[in-house]
Structure formats: structure tokens, C-alpha cells
Amino acid sequence: MTGRVIDGVRLAATIREDVAARAAALAKKGIKPGLAVILVGQDPASQVYVRNKVAACEKAGLHSVLEQYPADMTQDALLSRIETLNVDPHIHGILVQLPLPKHIDSHRVIETIAAQKDVDGFHISNAGLLMTGTPLFRPCTPYGVMKMLESEQVVLRGAVAVIVGASNIVGKPMAMLLQAAGATVTICNSKTRDLAWHTRHADIVVVATGKPGMVTGDMIKPGAIVIDVGINRSADGKLCGDVDYASVKEVAGAITPVPGGVGPMTIAMLLVNTLEAAERAQLPSTSR
To answer: Are the beta carbons of 65 and 35 closer than 8 angstroms?
Structure first.
């Protein structure tokens, strides 16, 4: 068996087309969805990520603002800037690129972003809404994974899902979304005893640990759906995921590649969240 490839690039393009159409409809009403992206410091990977996000916004007809600050920016200055953006009617989404310099408390920063503009879905209010099954914003990467599973017509109700990685950004919200869809979910991590036992019993495996190649073909049940969220650099400098693609592809029913899998979907869902924030801002306050 050779697993079919879940093409994140193609699916993301379809989602971006829908975003562009909805943004054009808002533009006719004089509204342009706006996203502010804040980058503190000169981390090369972060610079690439924010450029991609801003470019995607522009292509979809969204207004984007990229604000870059030096690594020695004070926490108070950053919080003050976020508070200004919170009340800017032209900005519907605020994203602060992580990681931040060590002297800045990322939790404090996230909690300063207005919940209704937290298009990353990391604010404690949004995390709580997700936990209770009534999300305002779904975190972009797990949201993208759900769309990929939907595109593959994966039956989630009753399915056994294993998530390897328990971060607030991917693992935990991924578990909440899968559970809400009716899956039986187990959260593992890189130190889980006999990790392979868990993954071999799963219909769906989502891997997000930041450890290249840690899930191999002998750890996967034949026909399982494997979603690789990881993005790493191999010894030869090539991009690779947390899954050993070559061996897993021969066992899985479907698998996401790296690059070209979850990454484009994360950006696409950021656009969706920003657009929905703009649409929601036009509703009467009692309807939000």
C-alpha cells in the first residue's frame, strides 16, 4: 500500500479563493478585513513566516500591516502597541509572531490582545470557548488539519485518534476539535511509554513534536491517516517533518507531506479567522 498524499497547497488555494470572494463582498460595503502582524527581533524563520502571512493577505484582498520592532523592544512598549491596535476599527485581527525575546512574557502579550481580534485563537477566553465546544476562533494549525480531514471525507465519529505532542498551539486544541467531532482521543508526547503501541491502534495520527522522523512506518496501522505538523531541517538542510515520510507513506492510507501539507493550511485558516473577525465586527453587539 502506498498512501495518497493530502495536498495542502491545493486545498489552501481553494480556501483562499473563498476568502477572496467573501472579502470582495465586504469591500462593496466599504469594509476591508485588516490583519496586523507584529514581529519583535530578527529571527530568520519568523521573518519568513510573517512575510508569507502578509503576502497571503494581500493576495486574498485583505488589508495587512507588518510591524517590525528591534529585539530590545520593552514589554511595556509592545503591550501599549497592542492596546492601540485593539481599538483600531481598521484592524480586525492581531497576530504577534512567536517566539518572542526572552525578556517578554508571551502569555502576558497574548492576554493583552482583545479576544475578538485574537485570530491565532490563543487567548485564554478563546481557549475556554474551544474547551466548551463553542469556539470563537479555532487555532489556525488545528483548524487547518480539520479541514484536511474533511477534504478526505474521514469519518471522525467513533474513530481512534492519537496526537503526539501536547502544546497549547497544536496538541491540546487539536484534541478538543477531534473530540468535538466524535473521535476518541489520546494525547501522547515524545516521552510516552511505548508510544508505538498507541500509534499502531490509531485510525488518525497527528504528530507535532518538533523532533524529525520520530514516527516511522512500523508505528502506524495500515490504512491510517497521518498528519505531520512538524517542520524541521535535516542534516543536509532540507525541510522535513516529524514523520519519517518514506516509511510511513508505504503503510498509511493518506499522509501529509512536508513541505506542502499543513503549512499552507495554517496560513489559509489565518485568513479565514481574520475574515470572520471582520464579518463579526459588522454585527450588532448582541449578535456577536
So the answer is: yes
